[in-house]
Design brief:
Distance between the termini: 35 Å
Number of domains: 1
Strand order of the largest sheet: 1-2-3-4
InterPro entries: DUF397
Largest sheet: 4 strands, antiparallel
Order of helices and strands: EEEEH
Number of strands: 4
Pfam families: DUF397 (PF04149)
Radius of gyration: 13 Å
Structural class: alpha+beta
Strand content: 25-35%
Helix content: 10-25%
Protein name: DUF397 domain-containing protein
Length: about 60
């Protein structure tokens, strides 16, 4: 099965720098890769860890600016 990569809406080139990632649900967890270099490799993290990261970002506890 081929991974379905999803790009952030912030990766459309209109935001400063447009440095974004793509994510995909994989059998082994969640794949993360650079949207500007999709062939450059990926990192796979567990679903629970990725969910915890998203929760921290959404709560404002992690400022990514």
């Amino acid at each position: 099965m081929t991974a379905q990569w999803c790009k952030s809406s912030y990766s459309n080139g209109t935001h400063e720098g447009s440095n974004c990632v793509e994510v995909a649900a994989l059998v082994s967890g969640v794949g993360v890769r650079d949207s500007k270099d999709p062939g450059g490799g990926q990192v796979t993290v567990g679903r629970a860890e990725f969910g915890a990261l998203l929760a921290r970002i959404r709560s404002g506890a992690l400022d990514l600016r």
